Queue: 2 jobs
Job 1
Amino acid sequence: MKNKKRRREQPRPTIHPRNKYSENPPDFALLASLYPSFNPFVFYGRDGRPRIDWTDFNATRELTRVLLLHDHGLDWWIPDGQLCPTVPNRSNYIHWIEDLLSSEIIPKINSNVDNIRGFDIGTGANCIYPLLGASLLGWSFVGSDVTDAAFEWAERNVKTNPQVSDLIEIRKVDTCIDAVLGEDSSKEDLLFCGSKSICGNSIGRELAPISSSTCDDAVEEKSYSGPPILFGVIRDGETFDFCMCNPPFFESMEEASLNPKTSCGGTPQEMVCPGGEKAFITRIIEDSVRLKHSFRWFTSMVGRKSNLKSLIAKLREVGVTIVKTTEFVQGQTCRWGIAWSFIPPARKLISPYVAEKSNLSFMLEGLQRQFGATQVLQSVESFFHENGASCKLNVHSFSADITASNEHLKGILRNEVGLLEEPFGRDCEEKPPSSSDTVPCPSDDLSFRITVFQQIPGTLLVKGSVQRKDGSIAGVFTSIFQRLEEVLKQKFCREKASVANF
Ligand SMILES: C[S@@+](CC[C@H](N)C(=O)[O-])C[C@H]1O[C@@H](n2cnc3c(N)ncnc32)[C@H](O)[C@@H]1O
């Protein structure tokens, strides 16, 4: 029983290793001794460990205030009820973006390489991402928001920190119709501005997003019809290295209050949007198509794993060149990050060490119950057949013998798009140089064997070995094997492959 339970437990990615709190979580006792205003919120459990009451908004706000001051030198405050960010959790998103930018999979579009420029959609009164990004990494930001409270308090939080204030611009989103009309928008799509009526069960916000359809329809369609998000807010000629967003996750305040274990505040304007995060992020995706040359990376947080799948499908539909996802875990809270780009990925470099190898292997972990060695072998077979190579399966030894000509190999490598978690097809013009251009193909046919071994339930080992040992052949074999690995991981352990980017 015990074993069974242990086996079911999924290994969870932890806090980002560069996160200040990854090795040293906030020390409440120390903070209480240094900051008298925090002291009343700290109490000691039976185990002698200091705690705070996470359901007390004043306690969580004071913790955020002292952490920003103590660890980041930031002077910060928000009024009662506004969304209060947890610093370790928000830092994870910043570090993930740092990883995306430094991976250089997507080449820089900003000629001023030292000045990273980000756009924070919905910066909130707390303005947490620009403050963290500027103080930790020296990035400059535009932070947008629609509410007066957010605009006023984000500006205050910037002004009280002169060390970063030159790096941050707070931009109020114009919620009036004209600002959101693209050339191809029709009158039917018009939004209400200012004080017009809103859906009965909605959130009472003055500028609530409304469609011209009935309220019921709007809920069913789950399409966003609120103030502009990117398109209409980004100015002509502006370019950014990335955008980020912690969207209004919920469709109603009832849904937003389902977690009684914490109190991080959050007004309806901050937490809710018709259609919830799915509709909001879908609009960001639509905007990104129109602004594909203005950003290197588009990113957003996603609160529900179930929404990730349909958002990724939407991204496929609009022809992005890459999608990356990650998981942000803090305590009991789990969120996901999604990032995409329209810029062709840079060429993948194959290290000489790897290129020499003629015996290679990789693990397929986290396979769903219905998938085993047989299904994986069948996928190996179709992977090579699709490109015209010969592939003979041996079901007894769980192996496949492949013979591929130069043309077959080039065909396989032409489909390669680099070290991507979600490499999507795009039209030919956008195609990056693939390793078919960079790795010499052998003059003779290449023969190799792929064998699949069952390790433990849910985990398979895939081995590949070249039948003839020869340096140049080993180079191309490495590329083919890497491509096979990407395809099998995408098919059989999608979530896992797309998660651990830390
Ligand atoms: C969940 S809060 C996030 C606040 C802050 N970024 C954080 O992480 O704590 C979402 C924010 O998006 C803002 N918002 C909603 N619609 C928006 C839009 N169309 N453009 C910009 N901000 C918007 C809300 O006012 C709110 O401040």
Note: The radius of gyration is 25 Å.
Job 2
Amino acid sequence: MAGRRVVVVGGGVAAHGAVAGLRQTGFRDEVVILGREGEPPYERPPLSKRYLLHEVPRHQLFLPPLEAELLLRREVVWIDLDRHEVHLANGERLAYWRLLLATGARPRVLPGGEHLLYLRELRDADRLRRHLDTGRPLEVLGAGFIGCEVAAAARLRGVPVTVHEALDQPLRRVLGPELGAWLGEVHRARGVDLRTAVRELPSLGQEALVAIGTDPNVELAAAAGIHCEAGIAVDELGRTSAPDVYAAGDCARFRSPLFDSPIRVEHFQTAHRHGISVGRAIAGYERPFAEAPWFWSDQYDLNLQYVGGGLPWDRAVIRGRPGAPRLTPPFTAFFLRLGRLVGALGVNDGRTISQCRRLLESRVAVTARQLADPLVDLKRLA
Ligand SMILES: Cc1cc2nc3c(=O)[nH]c(=O)nc-3n(C[C@H](O)[C@H](O)[C@H](O)COP(=O)(O)OP(=O)(O)OC[C@H]3O[C@@H](n4cnc5c(N)ncnc54)[C@H](O)[C@@H]3O)c2cc1C
């Protein structure tokens, strides 16, 4: 009998947040986390940044311990919805009262390139860092956030770097062509051999890093017949299509009341906050998750912060001015869709981004002109 046992699959930050959320409500029953990795929950963001620079020691990556039973190296391979049980790879079974899937995402693998470097787990970062320690040149496939961050870390360590990108500019899908071109110049000014619009796969050495995006880990849910669509589909409370089964974090595509749209985000803070919200909902404190997703990226001395749901946009306006590659005063680009603000990216401009976050969450209508005008106080608008 499971009693009121909550079983959480995945040992990442969303699982960590969910336990915190449950306990905040006073939930005193059993919570069991089943995680495939051999490590307790840790922060992944430093793995492509300061961990590679030897600036963050390993022990600092780990999240604070939680009031839950944490079972490591346990892979869940099957969910029996009728019996309310999960089956583990080692043959064990565990009954649940409520089940939370926080299975995260995994790097997209290049067909035939399974032996190359990928970056998701601590052991991947260790392998990549060992390569950087040798000082040998690094090749990177993909100029998304991970590719750009690793390229920056490698250059800061004096390692020669070549980046191959299929699109015309790095991070083009998020930043658009102009800002993407600006970021490309930032990397070139730091000595990255950035090759864009690459149409044919280059021949990559054994130690190349492949960073061409991620896929949500939905297979477990899908095999049980739970509805998945570019992620495990959940409502504002984190409920899946199956009774008593929830999902949170990178694996979940949740309905966001802020954007009137389902969104899936891959941000550390959102995974944590979403986990907290869903944990609370499991305990009966049902409040829709209506926070504006936010994340950051560090490249050289630039701090990029993004707020929004990553939805398509048709117009960008800029407050401030992108400077020369090595001299960047703060600026923020706002992204609008059909005249409505849907996101913003700030460079060394965390203040504007936090104001924009409040603006998005308040759902106040703003014009492109107000956003572009540095004399308009966004805090007051929100
Ligand atoms: C290198 C790197 C840098 C990043 N940098 C930033 C950044 O600067 N800013 C930012 O906001 N975000 C960043 N992110 C994204 C952020 O780390 C993720 O959004 C966050 O880790 C998601 O947490 P999660 O718990 O949903 O998933 P995960 O962290 O992926 O955890 C899921 C866990 O579930 C386990 N699992 C999966 N399936 C099973 C199963 N069947 N049985 C048992 N266990 C299972 C996985 O092994 C994994 O340990 C970065 C990510 C990476 C990889």
Note: The chain has a mean pLDDT of 95.
